[in-house]
């Protein structure tokens, strides 16, 4: 409890753009997000009054950080489970808990558990040797997708290989069939300790080089039946794993079936569109969920909402400030979110959101705005 | 320029809720608002990473604060004009400038100037003695409204008196006729140094005890002709006075005419509804204006938007956190903004915004939510 305001203190471990945007949502709720950032230049550290500097692997830093928080939650899933258990042993309330979060940290555990629950997933196997990988490839056909069991994100830790010899060395891997997918979807749900769930409309996510570049809400042409199937999968997994806070479920749409790809238990890129595009943003919803407030309305504010990520372009040319000027003039209908990051090629430095009635027009607006910010043209 | 981000630094003098909400908007633009707060517990000081403590009457504090700002602007209009001129002489860019801001600081100057511009205002006179006040009252009829020339806000510094003897002593006053008004309106416009203007839909403001309690956008039943008249008045005054940033113009609607009541040159309570209810919030718009970015779209996101202020209730009973829980459960369609203030009777501690199609339903939602937060019922 913040004695100055009479309102709770939520601590977030990690100071990236997710914490930055959660802080914006916290302000409206009368709070100020407490941030543990690795670096004083992290996106959230630049804007949040109550920032401490420390790494998520430093238990002493975590314990000191958690001390005055009513709830501790996460900007990323890299905090070791034993550290989370130590926080809880010291009296902290941590949401989601270590047992739930493990399924967003370890792909092998996640695949195993989803299989036990009967949730549809790609064919997969843990592979501990070239022989096991060769055997799996012979069974499902090459190429095969191999993934690091832990630590991957944004296309890192994932490789598509044509033969066993191409597998990266020194990493514990799982192998998966390369699913012949039509597109990727995401279903995002928030769940409170009380067990209330609120689910967002299912979206289509568009990837380039393994990085999400565009999200379309709602997913175009998705049947109601299929959308409900995806939402029910997300609700069921959130409930079975006892997730508290947000669960983002990435799905493959093969045309004839849905298969679960990844899970994240925090605000997620596939729901950035909710800031303007839903009555309750994912950031506010995550705070409401971990605080056991009643969940907010997840309905769309427009028939079509498109988010485009802004990736850092090549250095040189126009400054980001000049690009922003031009973007505002050229695409006035778009809303911008910049993360306060130094521009580096391929790095997510912000996103833009467009809303409207016409899918192609809205997509074009978002793409044009992202291009202005990426390339200055 | 913030060298960490390549984006500009806007400094705001004053650390109240207007700075707090401007900081939220700054975050989306990749910035972090620089705040000069009188008190470390001020609403913006609780949430903004880059806060200095100092008063707006302390020139040394102002000079130190302005040093690394690309632009300095205001959360309130109380900074002395000579201090602003000293900032400019020291190389600071201050928007709006001292000559414009004077018209939001001094009601006598404002009335004089609006009269010269032919802008319709209530009949008024500066009154320096009981005799002058008696003469004015004899001319326009009692009761008469008297206002402190400087320093008033939120109903403070305004008195309705039935005879000259009731006038407060020791204050420089102007007297105005008590206009037989049907309702109050507000027109809010943003203007950039380049001279671009963006005007919001005209709203109706509802006052209780001199404090705004409700704002309805757009103003119900206002003819297009009258709305355009109000908007044109605001644009004209912004341009003539060389306002940069937001200008909020409060108007009396007498049924047959519009009369200008007050001017404010900063984000204003009559446009808090724009956070969810307009494509560009007034807070983002103010930043864009003072930075000379192209202005954002001011159109409504729903046919009807209603904002209700949340005033502190009597002490005791439910905590604000409990009230918030109940409010979320009882009125899920409403968005809340709490300012991080200690609850004191009559103090503005937050606001709520409701959107929809049906005026009476939307008003009822907003009122119900405000009542939950004010009274816990």
UniProtKB/TrEMBL annotation, chains A, B:
<dbReference type="InterPro" id="IPR011761">
    <property type="entry name" value="ATP-grasp"/>
</dbReference>
<protein>
    <recommendedName>
        <fullName>N5-carboxyaminoimidazole ribonucleotide synthase</fullName>
        <ecNumber>6.3.4.18</ecNumber>
    </recommendedName>
</protein>
<comment type="pathway">
    <text>Purine metabolism; IMP biosynthesis via de novo pathway; 5-amino-1-(5-phospho-D-ribosyl)imidazole-4-carboxylate from 5-amino-1-(5-phospho-D-ribosyl)imidazole (N5-CAIR route): step 1/2.</text>
</comment>
<dbReference type="Pfam" id="PF22660">
    <property type="entry name" value="RS_preATP-grasp-like"/>
</dbReference>
<feature type="domain" description="ATP-grasp">
    <location>
        <begin position="111"/>
        <end position="291"/>
    </location>
</feature>
<keyword id="KW-0067">ATP-binding</keyword>
<dbReference type="InterPro" id="IPR040686">
    <property type="entry name" value="PurK_C"/>
</dbReference>
<feature type="binding site">
    <location>
        <position position="184"/>
    </location>
    <ligand>
        <name>ATP</name>
    </ligand>
</feature>
<dbReference type="GO" id="GO:0034028">
    <property type="term" value="F:5-(carboxyamino)imidazole ribonucleotide synthase activity"/>
</dbReference>
<dbReference type="GO" id="GO:0046872">
    <property type="term" value="F:metal ion binding"/>
</dbReference>
<feature type="binding site">
    <location>
        <begin position="261"/>
        <end position="262"/>
    </location>
    <ligand>
        <name>ATP</name>
    </ligand>
</feature>
<comment type="function">
    <text>Catalyzes the ATP-dependent conversion of 5-aminoimidazole ribonucleotide (AIR) and HCO(3)- to N5-carboxyaminoimidazole ribonucleotide (N5-CAIR).</text>
</comment>
<dbReference type="GO" id="GO:0005524">
    <property type="term" value="F:ATP binding"/>
</dbReference>
<dbReference type="InterPro" id="IPR013815">
    <property type="entry name" value="ATP_grasp_subdomain_1"/>
</dbReference>
<feature type="binding site">
    <location>
        <position position="107"/>
    </location>
    <ligand>
        <name>ATP</name>
    </ligand>
</feature>
<dbReference type="InterPro" id="IPR016185">
    <property type="entry name" value="PreATP-grasp_dom_sf"/>
</dbReference>
<keyword id="KW-0547">Nucleotide-binding</keyword>
<dbReference type="Pfam" id="PF17769">
    <property type="entry name" value="PurK_C"/>
</dbReference>
<feature type="binding site">
    <location>
        <position position="147"/>
    </location>
    <ligand>
        <name>ATP</name>
    </ligand>
</feature>
<dbReference type="InterPro" id="IPR005875">
    <property type="entry name" value="PurK"/>
</dbReference>
<keyword id="KW-0658">Purine biosynthesis</keyword>
<dbReference type="Pfam" id="PF02222">
    <property type="entry name" value="ATP-grasp"/>
</dbReference>
<keyword id="KW-0436">Ligase</keyword>
<dbReference type="GO" id="GO:0004638">
    <property type="term" value="F:phosphoribosylaminoimidazole carboxylase activity"/>
</dbReference>
<feature type="binding site">
    <location>
        <begin position="176"/>
        <end position="179"/>
    </location>
    <ligand>
        <name>ATP</name>
    </ligand>
</feature>
<comment type="subunit">
    <text>Homodimer.</text>
</comment>
<comment type="similarity">
    <text>Belongs to the PurK/PurT family.</text>
</comment>
<dbReference type="GO" id="GO:0005829">
    <property type="term" value="C:cytosol"/>
</dbReference>
<dbReference type="InterPro" id="IPR011054">
    <property type="entry name" value="Rudment_hybrid_motif"/>
</dbReference>
<comment type="function">
    <text>Catalyzes the ATP-dependent conversion of 5-aminoimidazole ribonucleotide (AIR) and HCO(3)(-) to N5-carboxyaminoimidazole ribonucleotide (N5-CAIR).</text>
</comment>
<dbReference type="GO" id="GO:0006189">
    <property type="term" value="P:'de novo' IMP biosynthetic process"/>
</dbReference>
<dbReference type="InterPro" id="IPR003135">
    <property type="entry name" value="ATP-grasp_carboxylate-amine"/>
</dbReference>
<dbReference type="InterPro" id="IPR054350">
    <property type="entry name" value="PurT/PurK_preATP-grasp"/>
</dbReference>
């Amino acid at each position: 409890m913040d004695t100055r305001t009479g309102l709770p203190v939520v601590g977030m471990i990690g100071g990236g753009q997710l914490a930055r945007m959660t802080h914006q949502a916290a302000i409206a709720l009368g709070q100020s997000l407490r941030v543990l950032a690795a670096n004083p230049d992290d996106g959230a550290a630049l804007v949040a009054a109550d920032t401490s500097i420390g790494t998520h692997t430093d238990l002493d830093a975590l314990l000191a950080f958690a001390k005055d928080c009513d709830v501790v939650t996460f900007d990323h899933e890299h905090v070791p489970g034993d550290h989370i258990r130590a926080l809880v042993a010291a009296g902290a309330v941590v949401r989601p808990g270590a047992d739930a979060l493990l399924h967003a940290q370890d792909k092998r555990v996640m695949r195993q558990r989803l299989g036990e629950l009967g949730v549809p997933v790609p064919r997969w196997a843990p592979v501990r040797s070239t022989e096991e990988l060769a055997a799996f490839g012979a069974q499902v056909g090459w190429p095969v997708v191999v993934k690091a069991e832990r630590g991957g994100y944004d296309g890192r830790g994932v490789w598509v290989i044509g033969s066993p010899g191409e597998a990266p060395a020194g990493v514990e891997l799982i192998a998966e069939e390369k699913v012949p997918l039509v597109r990727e979807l995401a279903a995002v749900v928030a769940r409170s300790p009380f067990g209330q769930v609120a689910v967002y409309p299912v979206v289509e996510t568009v990837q380039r080089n393994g990085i999400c570049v565009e999200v379309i809400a709602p997913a175009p042409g998705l049947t109601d039946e299929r959308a409900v199937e995806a939402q029910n999968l997300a609700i069921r997994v959130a409930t079975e794993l006892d997730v508290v806070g947000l669960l983002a479920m990435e799905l493959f749409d093969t045309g004839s079936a849905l298969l679960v790809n990844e899970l994240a238990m925090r605000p997620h890129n596939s729901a950035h569109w909710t800031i303007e595009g839903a009555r309750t943003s994912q950031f506010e919803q995550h705070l409401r969920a971990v605080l056991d407030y009643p969940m907010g309305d997840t309905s769309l504010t427009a028939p079509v909402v498109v988010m485009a990520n802004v990736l850092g372009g090549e250095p040189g040319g126009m400054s980001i400030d000049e690009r922003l000027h031009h973007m505002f003039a050229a695409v006035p209908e778009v809303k911008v979110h910049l993360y306060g990051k130094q521009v580096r090629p391929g790095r997510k430095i912000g996103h833009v959101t467009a809303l409207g009635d016409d899918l192609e027009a809205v997509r074009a607006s978002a793409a044009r705005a992202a291009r202005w910010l990426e390339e200055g043209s």
